């Protein structure tokens, strides 16, 4: 798609992958941070990671397995809290621990069996060994994420504002909330091979945190967060490949630096008054 | 001529919170006519908020029958909530909440607009109408998180009025308001009742009630112990007497 700009095929694929993955994650980061479900996003990222590891062990499609695991965990959180009488926070901690244990067990066991499986791609991402079909899939998830927000914008804004108020004005909160979780699980699973299970969380939180420093309105956050994420991710890919640095970790570091600069420059924290 | 059906009818209703061992409301029966002004009193934990949330279908009814505006609350909770305004008990919004007052008030119409549809001109006009009813048009573009507690409460009141409710459920609406704002809201409520809106109000402040006959409902331990009409001046005494009787029982 971007071959007219970047001649080198490997660099072009890497930039395309980072661009589309970052836009999809950044759109969802606004929902995740504003509904305050970042722990859910964190746990789902690790569930997808565990699903991919199990898939590889069983010689199944790791992307499909990570989608199933991510969605499975999203739908387990509520019933687990109710049945075990645990707070959602404790349930998430429990599921996160289980997911990590499963992922590490299968990765370590595969190495013991000498199946030649490199764990680094799943942990920290791999942007240079992607198939064209995987990039097309990222374009699709990017479009789906944008469409999801456009179609359900009123419902999403009301739930972000306050779930109880949203319910009291006649919005069907539960189906929309579960649709949000489904979208997060799907995006997380498709972005996992590029960004990696351990770093995905950065893409799911920091873009919105940066946007919040400058935006008074939710609608502007949905524009600023993906724009910032796209610029940072493409820069990370280009710099990383130019200087042979690991792309996803480097991009995560750039995100952190941009966030710190955004906090320092944020007009929303400045106290100003005009003497008339 | 047969009298019209009550706008709110509860018959032997039991309500329980998810995971609770016993019901929060027990055998509650209540009939309220269109245009009534109902004051709900009682000690903390008596079930006043639960009663409001049962009426608008936010809590599951485990036993009994409830109809509001002619709709079965158990089956059509969402439709009921589109016609019933509900001002929740005190709220404080984070200063960084990314919503303006106008956006918050518009949310009051989201249920009636419906899924996959965008707000139309009439929705924005209803928002302007609600803002001017409460005298807060000048706050429309301000972020809600930057307003005082009283102003935020007025915004949430406007959110409820924006959908022209047939029934208005108010849970401690005066908690963050100064005496001038209380008088203003009371005048507004009197006007709404005059227009045929049914108002149910949970409050501990009985001194500024509208000058008209009111129904007082007193709750104790999840059940109704007093349900009768009286003048606004008598409400406090009725609630106090019910409390004393409960203490001596």
UniProtKB/TrEMBL annotation, chain A:
Keywords: Membrane, Transmembrane, Transmembrane helix. GO terms for cellular component: ATP-binding cassette (ABC) transporter complex. Its main location: membrane. It is a multi-pass membrane protein. The chain crosses the membrane at residues 17-35, 47-80, 92-114, 135-156, 176-206, 218-241, 247-265. GO terms for biological process: response to zinc ion; transmembrane transport. Belongs to the ABC-3 integral membrane protein family. This is Metal ABC transporter permease.
UniProtKB/TrEMBL annotation, chain B:
This is Metal ABC transporter ATP-binding protein. Coiled coil: none annotated. Keywords: ATP-binding, Nucleotide-binding, Transport. Residues 8-246 form the ABC transporter domain. It comes from Methanoculleus formosensis. The keyword Transport applies. The keyword DNA damage does not apply. GO terms for molecular function: ATP binding; ATP hydrolysis activity. SUPFAM superfamilies: P-loop containing nucleoside triphosphate hydrolases (SSF52540). PANTHER family: METAL TRANSPORT SYSTEM ATP-BINDING PROTEIN TM_0124-RELATED. Gene3D superfamilies: P-loop containing nucleotide triphosphate hydrolases.
